[in-house]
Amino acid sequence: MAGNVVGHQQSKVDGVAEESSISDALDIAPESRFECPICLAWLRDPVVTACGHRFCSNCIDLWLKKENACCPVDNLKLTRDDIFPDNFTRREISQQRTKCPNIVRGCLQELSPLDVETHLLNCEFRIPESHLPESEKLHCLFGSFGCPHKFEDEPELQRHLENDTQNHFKLFSNICKNLKISEASGSASSAIAQQANFWDPPSKSEVNNHEGSVDSMQGLIK
């Protein structure tokens, strides 16, 4: 029920979810005790309410600006005086460690989930902002079978090959099926041609020779 309340009321808070976008952007899902019920991301500057629920400080501040604001989880009346800093949770989150999303490109940094966003701006293994021209991009190895995708670097290409196996198999199967159809059509055409040659009418000289033989036989009989 609490989840339904949060989901219904969350759409009324403009701009709150954008304040903490780490989970959405990097797919780093926090534990429920470290997740803000408003923005659904890691708690930033966590606070706890008198009714025992944790939120990002900025998220709950924006929430309380609504008229007759209440707790987003249990709907109990809530004011700014009912909210307190949660330093214990802040320390717990700061001790959490996650790998940089650019680990596939060689980055071995492990850092707090709250620092990932800042780290990515300066990570030496990040994808360059200047995109490669089409002529310099890497083609999918199944491009000759019909896969249109191109990539900026080897890790992206490798992930594509690992994640798109089923589509590549379908492309390969279609090619094989078309080849079999072409071979079958060629064999059928060859058989028809042979049958047509077998039933070709005799030439005029062959007819004249045959008629001469018949006349000779009739003369001998007489």
Summarize the structure in short.
By secondary structure, the protein is mostly helical.
Distance between the termini: 117 Å
Q: What is the top-level CATH class of the largest domain? A: Alpha Beta
Low-confidence runs (pLDDT<50, min 5 residues)? Answer: 1-27
What value does the Rg take, in angstroms? 38 Å
Strand content: 5-15%
What string gives the helices and strands in order?
HHHEEHEHEEHEEHHH
Largest sheet: 3 strands, antiparallel
Tally of contiguous helical segments? 9
Descriptive notes:
With 222 residues, the chain is mainly alpha-helical. It folds into 2 domains: 2-95, Herpes Virus-1; 135-222. The chain is 47% helix and 8% strand. It is built from 9 helices and 7 strands; from the N terminus they run H-H-H-E-E-H-E-H-E-E-H-E-E-H-H-H. The strands form 3 sheets. The protein has a 3-stranded antiparallel β-sheet with strand order 2-1-3. It is elongated and about 120 Å long. The model is unreliable at 1-27 (pLDDT under 50).
